[in-house]
């Protein structure tokens, strides 16, 4: 069970970096039309889409700035990962 908990936390950590990469790659023009862009979009959009529905983009100058990915990363790292870690520790009898 401890090994499974370790791998669950590693997968969650990897997903955090996939989210981060997806957000960074949105700054590169035309990247979302590549195979990498489409794969990252399919992997991350179900999670990021939740935040985009509730946090509108802010108008800055001639364009818009979407702050929802920043909030999504924060929520993932602070609440989701820590919540899962706590549940795993509880299941192992360590919390």
Fold and architecture overview:
The chain is mainly α. It has one domain (2-92). 73% of the residues lie in helices and 6% in strands. It is built from 3 helices and 2 strands. It has helices at residues 2-25, 35-54, 68-92, and strands at residues 58-60, 63-65. Strands 1-2 form a two-stranded antiparallel sheet. Strand 1 (58-60) and strand 2 (63-65) form a beta hairpin. Helix 1 packs across helix 2 (35-54), helix 1 (2-25) packs antiparallel against helix 3 (68-92) and helix 2 packs across helix 3. The longest helix has 25 residues, at 68-92. The radius of gyration is 16 Å and the shape is elongated. The mean pLDDT is 92. Belongs to the YggT family. Pfam families: CCB3_YggT.
Helix/strand layout:
Layout: H1 2-25, H2 35-54, E1 58-60, E2 63-65, H3 68-92
Antiparallel strand pairs: 1-2
Organism: Tumebacillus flagellatus
InterPro entries: CCB3/YggT
Family: Belongs to the YggT family.
Order of helices and strands: HHEEH
| Cα-to-Cα separation, first versus last residue | 15 Å
* Unreliable parts: none
The helix tally amounts to 3
Pfam family, one: CCB3_YggT
Transmembrane segments: 14-36, 57-79
Organism: Tumebacillus flagellatus
InterPro entries: CCB3/YggT
